[in-house]
Specification:
Blueprint lengths: L14 H14 L12 H8 L3 H14 L2 E4 L3 E4 L22 E2 L12 H14 L14 H15 L8 E4 L1 H15 L4 E6 L6 H6 L3 E8 L2 E2 L1 H5 L5 E4 L13 H13 L3 E5 L23 E6 L11 E4 L2 H15 L4 H13 L1 H27 L4 E3 L6 E5 L6 H10 L2 E2 L1 E2 L12 E5 L5 H14 L9
Parallel strand pairs: 3-14, 5-6, 5-8, 8-9, 9-10
Antiparallel strand pairs: 1-2, 4-11, 6-7, 10-11, 12-13, 13-16, 15-16
Helix pairs in contact: 1-3, 2-3, 4-11, 5-11, 6-10, 12-14, 13-14
This protein binds pyridoxal-5'-phosphate.
């Protein structure tokens, strides 16, 4: 039977009344939702340390008032009509018709989560883990996972990381948060960030007091000469697949970036957010492998498995390990151990890489469907970033009105991400980001057709 907390002030007397009003308030506030099964009167009385008669009276009173229903065989429940106060609608969710084709990037196909493999791995962990696995974790994460990741990242991403250089984090987002705090501790108050870049990450840096210096990117990735003109001695980059333009950082720029870091005693933060998904060529190795003493490499299972896992890693230069462990302790005393051990099992048995192979083929079909549909319905658009990842950067036909197009597409039930929010210093052509991971090829084709019908020219000429 589920436990139920009712606050009683024993010095105030009238305990029966307090039980009654405590339950009523809990139902009204939504803390006890419609359909909630209350404990038996005996169990609740024992729990609260009051006589059973008081609880019987309270239940009877609330049944009479309509808050509770009692049915033979199914006990006492909160009446379904007692809906909790509705929270305010999320911004934008009430705008216009329902979203039927959601092309917003950043989410993998959640329906493909490898449930059976994860379950088998979890079962193995629960059958074999020592009792100590249920104690507080160390701040760096489970030693088994750090060893497995050192091997995996070395093999698959050409990283150079020993297990002691790895700290397990709750996703790239937490890695960025910890690194931002560490930069402040080291007196590096300016972080250079690519322009355009993910607008969702900006508040992570500013919350921790960093100033952001935006640096333009072009067809080779970040402009390292422009970076050198900023006061920043730390930079965040997405070398495998620039977010959002999809550019792979060129070999020349990789070398220049590392040279800049060495010359300025600077730190490079590498966000390797979707590097597992590369379709037409071999994956490009990570930047960290070139300069492990200068690069913080951040990755996670958010795209490979699901963002709800909140499981990621930071491979750190030696000089940062102590600080990041300390900050991780302050943040949450370490990431949850069971999920870490389950990931170890997935890596050891090959289930993780098998899943990735299946998903690569799955996403490739989706990418092809979008690219073909764009060629058919929007031939004047230019598509970038097809080689990797789970989204495309699509320049709308010259002269289109980006904002109006996105709005009109939304009215047709299609949600695409406009580029405007991601650009800070340099204006760019009208463009949108299309995340293609979550819809079937047929739905993607339909979405692109609707998007094509939504393209509006700039300067108010509605055609
Ligand atoms: C640029 C970028 N980096 C990282 C991530 C993943 O962050 P996390 O690992 O915290 O889920 C995303 C997710 O969409 C992203 O767009």
């Amino acid at each position: 039977m589920r436990e139920l907390l009712v606050h009683l002030d024993r010095s105030a007397g009238r305990l029966g009344g307090q039980v009654r009003s405590g339950l009523r308030d809990a139902i009204r506030s939504g803390r006890l939702p419609p359909g909630f099964r209350l404990p038996s009167t005996r169990a609740l009385a024992e729990n609260l340390g009051v006589s059973r008669g008081m609880v019987v009276d309270a239940y009877e009173q609330l049944i009479a008032e309509g808050y509770l229903t009692s049915r033979h065989g199914s006990g006492t429940q909160v009446t379904s009509a007692c809906a909790a106060p509705q929270p305010a609608a999320a911004p934008g969710s009430a705008d216009g018709p329902p979203i039927t084709h959601d092309l917003v990037p950043g989410v993998p196909d959640l329906s493909e989560f490898p449930r059976a493999a994860w379950l088998a791995a979890t079962r193995h962990v629960l059958n074999t883990a020592p009792h100590s696995a249920f104690g507080y974790p160390g701040p760096a994460g489970a030693a088994e996972l750090r060893a497995a990741l050192a091997d995996y990242l070395g093999r698959v991403r050409a990283a150079q990381a020993r297990p002691e250089h790895i700290v397990v984090v709750n996703g790239v987002a937490q890695g960025l948060s910890l690194v931002s705090q560490a930069l402040r501790r080291f007196g590096r108050d300016v972080l250079a960030v690519e322009d355009p870049s993910s607008d969702r990450q900006r508040s992570i840096f500013t919350t921790h007091g960093l100033d952001v210096a935006y640096v333009p990117t072009d067809a080779e990735g970040i402009d390292v000469e422009a970076l050198a003109r900023t006061p920043a001695r730390a930079v965040l980059v997405t070398p495998a697949h620039q977010y959002p333009t999809g550019v792979v950082l060129s070999p020349r720029r990789r070398a220049a970036l590392v040279e800049w870091a060495r010359a300025h005693d600077a730190l490079i933060v590498e966000d390797d957010y979707d590097a597992e998904f590369r379709y037409d060529r071999d994956p490009v190795g990570c930047l960290q492998g070139l300069a492990p003493d200068r690069v913080v490499h951040l990755g996670s299972t958010s795209k490979a498995l699901a963002p709800g896992m909140r499981l990621g890693w930071a491979a750190l230069p030696a000089a940062l390990i102590e600080q990041i462990r300390d900050l991780k302790t302050n943040a949450d005393l370490g990431s949850a151990t069971l999920a870490q051990l389950t990931l170890v099992r997935m890596l050891e048995t090959g289930a993780y890489e098998r899943h990735l192979r299946v998903m690569r083929a799955h996403y490739r079909k989706r990418r092809d469907a979008v690219a073909e549909a764009i060629a058919e319905h929007l031939p004047a658009a230019r598509v970038h970033g097809v080689a990797a990842g789970l989204h495309l950067y699509v320049e709308l036909p010259a002269g289109s009105d980006e904002e109006a197009t996105v709005r009109r597409a939304r009215a047709h039930g299609v949600r695409v991400e406009p580029m405007a929010a991601m650009r800070v210093i340099a204006p760019g052509p009208p463009a949108v980001i299309i995340g293609y991971a979550t819809l079937s090829p047929d739905r993607l084709r339909a979405a692109v057709r609707l998007l094509a019908e939504s393209v509006l020219p700039a300067a108010g000429r509605h055609g």
